[in-house]
Structure formats: structure tokens, C-alpha cells
Design brief:
With about 280 residues, this protein is α/β, with parallel strands linked by helices. A six-stranded mixed sheet has the order 1-3-5-4-6-2, with helices on both faces. A hairpin with a 2-residue loop joins strand 4 and strand 5. The longest helix is centred in the first third of the chain and has 25 residues. The radius of gyration is 25 Å and the shape is elongated. It comes from Gordonia aquimaris.
Length: about 280
């Protein structure tokens, strides 16, 4: 807890001034180190949920929430930074009034939060959260509503991460793999998800033609993963092709693209593997 001098109004003013100074120092440090522009931006709830795919919600009631997990806002993304430090002096009057009231021992109602994964987003109580951070409180009382999403929120740190999540969600809607198999498909470039989805759909179309029957998306996804993705990746790993690629999905994407570029075929055999092995060595050099 910040040091209390016994003068609530003065202490509240000092807290706000300190928070504003830290916010500006962080902006300056980000500029000096050429960090992404959104590194200190509070995460926008609507964009996060849209990227992950909202499927439902559950009211969890009154809880004590770790202040460090509050990283986003429903509608006040311009007034506070990622650490709920005020981004301007526009909210000074109300901020200091609430902070002084807290220091005088007046009751403070719980804030209202949305929970997405391990992250919390403020629906009501932005100033109270900011004041709690200024006074180094570890927890805050909150009414929490948990939001259930199509894909996991893990890995979201800055706003730019949402693009990757959004494309991954769209990929899994086109290629509905079970959760365990979906975890094996990880790509660094968000636009590669669309290319991979087209690859899977084309594979499923050729399989449907070969079998003479229609296959739904779930069946195509299941068979593609077991009959195409896993065998190809295992062959490539045994042949030590593109060992610089740690992600199996990245490796499969490279293999599929190079195979068609080199031989214009959609088959796998020893000759193709040999050519890809040579191509991989040339790529590393």
C-alpha cells in the first residue's frame, strides 16, 4: 500500500500525479526501444471476444480478483493504459475524489468484470481499479461474469495478437478439429491459417471425388489430420527436412507448397521427399 501521510486529498493528488508520470515514462520508453505501438494499450473487450468467438457466459457472483489480471476494458480504452494508469489529466477530478474518499474510509462498491480465460475486463469501476493499482492492492472485490469462447485466450498480450487469434478461430470453423488435434496446428503468420484451410478443403474435395461420396467438414478434418498431416510431418521429421521449423504446422505448410511448386502433384512418395530434402538444405544455406 502506498504511504499514507494522513491528508487524504493530498495523498490522492500525489497518487494521480505519480500514475500519470509513470504512464508517460512508459510511453517514452516504448518509443526509445521501438516497441510495438500497442504494447501499453489496454485490451478492448469486444475485439478480444470477437477474435475468440463468444459462445456463452456464466455469472460467478462476488469474488476477490487479482488486480494484476485486469488488463482490458469494455469501453474506456482511451482513458487508461494497459496498467490502468490515466492517459491524460482529463479524469483527474473524479479519480482524486474517489481516491480521497477511499482513504477517508468510505465504503467502495465492488467493480464489475468480465473474465476471458485468465484475463479480466472492466465493465464498471475503471477508476477504482486504477486507484487500487496506485495503492498497490493485490486484490479487489468484483462481480465477475465469465465469458466462454470458441478458442483459448492464451497468448494474448497486445492488441495485435488478436489478428492471429481471429484467423485461428476462422480456420477451426472451416476445419473443425477436436481440441487435442487443434493444439498441433500453430502458425506464426495469421494469413497462413486461411491458406492451410484452403489446402485442407481441397484435400477433402479430392478425397470425396475418390470415394464418390460427400464428406462433411468434421469428417474431412478428422481424416486430413490422421491420413495426411501426421504421416507427412513424421516422414519429414525422419528425413530431417527443414529442421529449423519447430512447428509441425509450419513444416507441413512448407512441404505442401514446395511439393506442388516442384512437381505439380498432390501425392507423396520417396522421390518427392528426396527433392524436398534437397530443397530444404538449399533453403537453410
Amino acid at each position: 500500500m502506498a504511504r499514507d501521510t494522513g491528508f487524504p486529498d493530498a495523498d490522492a493528488e500525489n497518487d494521480f500525479t505519480r500514475m500519470r508520470r509513470h504512464a508517460e515514462m512508459s510511453r517514452l520508453m516504448a518509443w526509445f526501444t521501438r516497441q510495438p505501438a500497442d504494447v501499453n494499450t489496454v485490451l478492448p473487450f469486444d475485439e478480444v471476444v470477437a477474435a475468440l468467438g463468444r459462445v456463452g457466459e456464466t455469472a460467478l457472483g462476488l469474488q476477490q480478483v487479482e488486480v494484476s489480471t485486469i488488463v482490458g476494458s469494455v469501453d474506456r480504452t482511451r482513458d487508461f493504459d494497459r496498467y490502468f494508469r490515466p492517459t491524460s489529466s482529463r479524469i483527474r477530478e473524479r479519480w482524486q475524489r474517489l481516491a480521497a474518499a477511499q482513504r477517508r474510509g468510505e465504503s467502495v462498491p465492488p467493480v464489475q468484470l468480465y473474465r476471458v480465460g485468465s484475463m479480466h475486463f472492466v465493465l464498471d469501476g475503471h477508476h477504482r481499479v486504477s486507484i487500487a493499482i496506485a495503492r498497490h492492492f493485490r486484490t479487489i472485490d468484483a462481480y465477475v461474469t465469465e465469458i466462454h469462447t470458441r478458442i483459448s485466450a492464451d497468448g494474448i498480450n497486445v492488441t495485435s495478437d488478436l489478428l492471429l487469434k481471429d484467423h485461428r478461430r476462422l480456420f477451426l470453423s472451416r476445419v473443425p478439429l477436436p481440441s487435442a488435434q487443434a493444439e498441433a496446428i500453430r502458425l506464426a503468420d495469421p494469413f497462413d491459417y486461411a491458406e492451410l484451410a484452403e489446402n485442407v478443403e481441397a484435400w477433402g474435395f479430392r478425397l470425396s471425388q475418390e470415394l464418390g461420396e460427400y464428406l462433411g467438414r468434421a469428417e474431412v478434418a478428422r481424416r486430413w489430420f490422421g491420413e495426411e498431416f501426421l504421416p507427412v510431418v513424421r516422414m519429414a521429421r525422419r528425413a530431417e527436412i527443414r529442421t529449423d521449423l519447430e512447428s509441425d504446422a509450419e513444416l507441413y505448410m512448407w512441404l505442401a507448397c514446395e511439393r506442388y511448386r516442384l512437381v505439380r502433384k498432390h501425392i507423396w512418395d520417396d522421390e518427392i521427399i528426396r527433392k524436398l530434402h534437397e530443397q530444404g538444405h538449399r533453403r537453410r544455406r
